[in-house]
Amino acid sequence: MSLACEGIRVLELTEALAGPYCAMMLGDFGADVIKVERPGVGDQTRAWGPPFVGTESCYFLMTNRNKRSMTLNYDNPQGLEILNRMIAATDVLLVNNPNLSSLQKRHIDPEAQCSKHPRLIYLNISGYGFNGPKAGLPGYDIVAQAEGGVWSFTGEEGTNPVRYPVAIVDISTGIYSTIAVLTALFARERTGRGQFIDMALFDTQLTWLANIGSNYLNAHEMPTRWGNGHASIVPYDVFKGGDGKLFILAAGSEAHWSRLLPILDAEETLGKDPRFTSNKLRVQHRKELNLLLQDILASCPANVWLSKLAAVKIPAGPIHTVDEALTDPQTLARSTIVEIEHPTIGMARSIANPCRLRGTPPLYRCPPPLIGEHTESVLSGMGFSAEDIQSAKRAGAI
Questions:
Q1: What values do phi and psi take at 11, rounded to 5?
Q2: Is the domain defined by 9-208+332-394 classed in CATH 3.40.50.10540?
Q3: Interval 175-189 mean pLDDT
């Protein structure tokens, strides 16, 4: 099976989540990803737990498959020399450093490296990018979620904002970074030149404003908190069946609404109520409608309603727990759980890359590496002699 990024070497000088997620996706597509870690410590997520499986944190296992790990101290002069030799043989350099001056001090900043290596694609991830009044400040997912505006309309009406409990900004930045790298590789095929890519968590979080951002930019409308509801579509919310189980009902179009009424035996009631004859009116009267719907839906168990809704193709579904989601028949049918044999913990499991390419699909070749597991093989494969490697060890560079 051919791999889309086969022959592309990625040097990953990132840790935590956004950069490693991007590197993992590129590895899934066939790139040779070399993860450069600090000697003795490694990626900070190696210590993010519990839970741990043996000595490995589940957090690290999540985002580091399809990589080789080497340790390198590039604050050490010999380590910096090794790094520069490696960059010269690299297609994509991934860095996450908020301080341009720190990179310039080591002469591994974008301008220095891209001028020296015109085909290099250099991507840096930081909280705010390399320009603007907040450039250089540390970036964290929780801060980006707060400053990016999304928190202001999370939670139920009258409550405090709620952080999304998964690092959505880091993961989204990793995905956007992957898109940017693949775009830059495609451009390089046509121009012969690489480029610098300046990715910021803050920029990514702003894209999550989506229609809410458009509402403000174009109509100067500020959002309110709808809880699990939708600002512009009703009914689109959580309801409870007669057995007490919660489920989602999302009648997002007039066609859905017209098919919903017979299921509810409400054509002569809700269907003829002037408050509910269009989505615009249903949005205006959401509280009244949701209460009436809940009264009807309490008459049967949730699974009965879900069967009826599925039969007429109205979007609806149960609210799964994590274990239910990961063992759902659809999850299993789509092979969305990756299993790779790991050298110390047995089977390492992770969630598959969702990009389903028929001709060049993702391939899961390597488990998340042990710290420094591939240091010598990486260096020897890049032309370093056995004496070079031993010298670097004696100097504390690797």
A1: -105, 115
A2: yes
A3: 98
